[in-house]
Amino acid sequence: MKKELMKDNFYEAVNGEWLEKAVIPGDQPQISAFLELHLEIEELLMDLASKWSKDQTGLNNHLLKFVKLHEMTKDFETRDKLGSTPLEPVIKRIENLKSLKDLEKNAQEFMLDGIDIPFGYHVMQDFMNSNNQVLYFGATDLFLPDTSYYHNPETKEQLIGLFKMTTMQVLQLYGLDPEKVNELLEKALAFDELLVPVTKSSVEKADYVSMYNLISKAELIGKTKTFNLSKLANNLVGTEVETLIVTNPAFIDKFEEIINEENFELIKSWMIVSNILGFASLLSEPLRVASGAFMRALSGTAEPQAQEKFAFYQAYNRLSQAIGLYYGETYFGPKAKKDVEEMVYEVINVYKERLHNNTWLDDATKEKAIVKLNKISVHIGYPEELPPTYNLYEVGSYAEGSNLVLESIKWSRLNVEENFSKYNKEPNRNLWAMPASMVNAYYMPTNNQIVFPAAILQKPYYSIDQSRSANYGGIGAVIAHEISHAFDNNGAKFDEFGSLNNWWTEKDLATFKEKSKAMIDLFDGVETGNGPCNGELTVSENIADSGGIRSALEASKKEKDHNYEEFFINWARVWRMKASPQFLQLLLTVDVHGPAVLRANMQLSNLPEFQDFYKLTPEDKMYLAKDKMVEIW
Ligand SMILES: [Zn+2]
To answer: From the candidates 488, 496, 545, 566, which is the catalytic residue?
Structure first.
């Protein structure tokens, strides 16, 4: 502890020694409390994987599939011998296209096989009626991670240059001759450029309710005469689609200007480049290393992942929920589950109390908020069900004539077909969006559901060896953070059933918007050493953090042995992070979570109890005048 810093930079006071000593792993852009825990789990899972590859006694069907796939991903001798050949049939299929009409004919098969085309369909829960699932239409992402990079000429030149250089190497390793590579890249980038004005920025995407734009079949047909999107939709879901949701209306409005016969060579080149980049990590060692070079450079990661680790993740990522389930059942267990469950309901009760005592909401809105809170479904540890495609997936082997590209296509077909089969059906709310072995947690607004995977229910977030106050500063705040997402600027638009539905009185909604604006202003432009924080991009997470820390602290205060300092210290500890400047800059541009140092310090400055406990005065840098504090939940 650097006690002398507590009043000026609490984050540094708590984490200073750690920050000095922490080493960023060569294959990572950062190290953090999250990542330290992740690396421990990774080691455990990789040990299990190597044990399983020698002895499969007692493994269930899904784990046996993982073992078989892992045999393929780690066999780099065969991967190197095969070189680019597994991907050649895919690229041939694109090269054989002669016109946009050809692409139209093949679009459905491409989508099923997981071959990138510049736009596509996906079935998801209907925001307006969360008991149903509907069709969403969206366009591809850009080559650079955010539109802002294209708007600054200097950054654009630098990053497009980097993209060109690293991609050129991938295309040459794939086996294309240098002249052809140049031509392909120029055309692919020209197409990418056409998409920039109709692509949402990270800030625009953070307002995720704006993704929901209903369009009728007639409107769709009227705006996209150059490509029969309506027929594609009907074929994919096997029935006549009368309305669908467009995630990005600007793209549909300009569709005919971008997707037309004149631009076909640009589209085709974009598809060749995108798909070689997308599939390259399934090929030889040189190709998998080269295909990660752009992201490594962009994030300031020193070196590629070791081959062994990479091979593990290629198998793990496909069947992660099955391994997560094994992990949860083996290392988490019913006792810890019960303990955390109790804590979740304690936090929910405190939240309810706080809503009751809330001073800025009308009774009508309060009541609705409490109804929503009571309806939140809580999922802890590991899921009861696995994705249905796990049962259907039959893993091949090199001896049986398969390879990793064929496995990827097989897997894609299962999942894409499964996705389209959900059209107009009720969702299965027992399925989780992340494996139990992932150090994370989430709130799903369309299910009004919070999920805490087993992996995050450990030190420093939670431990029976830690004081209750420390646990409340860690996992307690995470729990209350996820609950607060039900009431952040996005979540507050959904009702207790997860449907878009305004349950606010006019006056309260106006106050909430004002308060959200105050939260934007509190963080906006605050310097972090690598650039300013973007208040608008991070507002939902900052509202959740603020509600999280306040409610967790309230719950902690109810404990007999409550200790402010232990609470504050663990709060600051879980946000510790050391990263390359490039990575921090990237996060400032694209991440809806604020920079770690601000998540720790600003939320404490914004807390009256912290100010009182440390007797802060305006001379202290952690001081924020009480009338400047922003309290929402
Ligand atoms: Zn969050």
So the answer is: 545
The residue ranges of the chain whose pLDDT is under 50 are none
Residue 40, token pair as written in the block:
């421990």
Q: What SS3 class is residue 469? A: helix
**Separation between Cα atoms, residue 633 and residue 607, nearest integer Å:** 12
Three-state DSSP class for residue 100: helix
Beta carbons of 493 and 507 less than 8 angstroms apart: no
* Amino acid 8: pLDDT: 97
Q: What is the pLDDT of residue 172?
A: 98
Could you give the CA distance from residue 470 to residue 468 in angstroms, rounded to a whole number? 5
Q: What residues make up the domain containing 344?
A: 3-43+319-385+428-628
Distances (CA, A) of 599 to 513, 579, 602: 21, 15, 6
The verdict on 342 and 217 lying in the same domain is no
| CA 478–ligand 1 middle distance (angstroms) | 8
Domain membership of residue 192 (yes or no) is yes
186, part of any domain: yes
User: Which residues are 134's β-sheet partners?
Assistant: 124
pLDDT of residue 305: 97
* Cα 477 to Cα 458: distance, rounded to the nearest angstrom: 14
Q: What is the pLDDT, as a whole number, of residue 83? A: 98
Residue 8 Cα distances to 18, 107, 489, angstroms: 18, 58, 30
| Dist. CA 474–CA 252, nearest whole Å | 44
Asked whether the beta carbons of 289 and 173 are under 8 A apart, the reply is no
Residues 24 and 136 in one domain: no
Handedness of CA 508, 514, 520, 523 (dihedral sign): negative
Which residues on neighbouring strands pair with residue 376, listed in sequence order? none
Domain identity same for 620 and 502 = yes
pTM: 0.94
Give the integer Cα–Cα distance in Å for 317 and 372: 34
Tell me the CA–centroid distance for residue 481 and ligand 1, in Å. Answer: 6
Going by C-alpha positions, the residue among 124, 117, 118 that lies closest to residue 211 is 124
> Which pLDDT does position 68 carry in this prediction?
98
Ligand 1 centroid to residue 485 C-alpha, Å = 7
Q: For 277-310, how does the pLDDT look when each residue is reduced to its tens digit (9 = 90+)?
A: 999 999 999 999 999 999 999 999 999 999 999 9
- Supply φ then ψ for residue 124, to 5 degrees: -145, 170
545 is catalytic: yes
- Domain-located, residue 228: yes
Do 329 and 241 reside in the same domain of the chain?
A: no
Written as one string, the DSSP assignment of 355-410 is HHH-SSS-HHHHHHHHHHHHH-EEEEES-S---THHHH-----TTTT--HHHHHHH
pLDDT score, position 401: 96
Q: Which of 12, 116, 146, 482 is catalytic?
A: 482
The DSSP symbol for 260 reads S
Residue 221 tokens, joined: 């047909």
- Tell me, what's the pLDDT at 335? 79
